[in-house]
Specification:
single chain
Length: about 190
Amino acid sequence: MDLRFRRAVIILVVLVSAAASAGAQAIIDKNRSPMSPDQQFGIGVNNAGLHIQYAMGPAFHLGLNLNLDVNKLDESKPEIYHFGPYAKFLFSGGIVTPYALAAVGVLKPGTGNLGVAGRKGMADSVFANLPDTELSLKLAAGAEHFFSQNVGVYGHVNLMHFVVHPTPNTFDLGLLGAVFGMEFFF
């Protein structure tokens, strides 16, 4: 046999055996903590309200916010009902697992009024002045500690908040409030 051909065969055998042994090794997910929920449904409660979620894996959760946000910065809308989906990516961690969260929400300010209007001798009419619905996008960073695959405590800080009003849109960047709570998975 030709020397070049022998070298090529030896290199090919080494590469194939290395690939086979690498495929036989256990794959370790760096984001997997033994306590992080995996393919479980969960509910959570926090200082803004409630949420339901599904842990698609130990590093990725999808959920739905069902919140009553109390907005101390805007006196014209002190209460906002916030409903919408969110995604949470959990990074590698030990006792505490850091995460990033993105949430889209339909906001309904809790202000408005309901009343009865009428004139003397005329029929009364009922009226409702409801505020306009808004759309929001929030980005947050935080950390979570899992006591078990069924219970975790978490907290995050909102870093970016973009709200689409009928007029005008607002964009806030910075430390925009904290959320802390507890989650239960089944």
